[in-house]
User: Fold this.
Amino acid sequence: MMRTLLIATGLLLAACQPLPPVDPGPGGPGPIPTSADACRDRGGHWGPQGLLGRDGCVLPYADAGKRCTDGDQCLGDCRAVESTSFPRPGQSATGQCQANTSPFGCFTQVENGKAEAALCVD
Assistant:
């Protein structure tokens, strides 16, 4: 019993390790700063992120809100414009380029002019 508890605790702690800086890709804002000052210096917002509320940096994308039909047209993702509900997977869709580097929230990506399955990230 004690051994199982120690293993479970170790796995839980390993899952809570901070993630390395993310590079959003070519043309994006570059690696995400890991300190509040560096984040603000780059025009980002530093604060609690996700369900766990860990402090992190969110940088804006220069093409935020641009109409798109595929993620290749954006610095981030191409996301379906929310109205009252998400489009069905495979349905024809037009989206907008992702506003910022935050991966959190509920959204539907648009690829090749078609909606993907809705996704909620905490």
Summary: Confidence is low (pLDDT under 50) at residues 13-24. The chain is about 15% helix and 25% strand. The first helix runs from residue 2 to 15. The longest strand covers residues 114-121.
